Amino acid sequence: MRNMKCVGLLLFFYSMLLCSACNDNVITSPDQIIFPDTNISYQLHVKPLLELTCAFSGCHDYESKLGSVDVTSYYALTGRAGLIIPGKPDLSLLNQILEGKQPHMLSFQDRVNSSQIKGLRQWVIEGAKNN
User: Fold this and answer.
1) CB atoms within 10 A of CB 36
2) CA distance 124 to 129
3) Model pTM greater than 0.85?
4) How far is the C-alpha of 118 from the C-alpha of 83, rounded, in Å?
5) What is the mean pLDDT of the chain?
6) Using an 8 Å Cβ cutoff, are 42 and 124 in contact?
7) 112, 49 in Cβ contact below 8 A?
8) Which long-range contacts (CB under 8 A, 24 or more apart) does 82-91 make?
9) Rg (CA), the chain
């Protein structure tokens, strides 16, 4: 009986530990992604934005790859020739599309704001690092 109480307490503390790992930092909307002026992070800014605005079924996910573009990982994003050219946002197709200089099949402008577009440009200027 005593062992059952110990197991019960351990399960209780384990579940509390798991619940404490859950927090309100989960990003569920592109509006929650705010790019700083410098030191743009792929993991904190670029990846979440692309996941919420571009990397879904029927668009630029691993399966669909519309236009042969997959934005689900850093390596897929930077591995597509011309999509991202580190240090050169004016030559990077992603920046050209986001900035309206190149056409895009579907409208995405309602999912990204000017600050995010500027942030993606700054990320490319900073070398499009996997940070």
Assistant:
1) 12
2) 8
3) no
4) 16
5) 80
6) no
7) yes
8) 84/124, 84/128, 85/124, 85/128, 86/124, 86/127, 86/128, 86/129, 87/124, 87/125, 87/127, 87/128, 88/124, 89/120, 89/121, 89/124, 89/125
9) 20
Residue 92 three-state SS: coil
Q: How many whole angstroms separate alpha carbon 10 and alpha carbon 6?
A: 6
Per residue in 65-99, pLDDT (tens digit) is: 667 788 899 999 999 999 999 999 999 999 999 99
The encoded tokens of residue 53 equal: 């605005």
* Phi/psi at 129 (5° precision): -75, 150
Quick one: how far is CA 13 from the chain centroid? 33
Q: Which two tokens stand for residue 14?
A: 């384990």
Farthest-apart Cα atoms in the chain, separation: 72
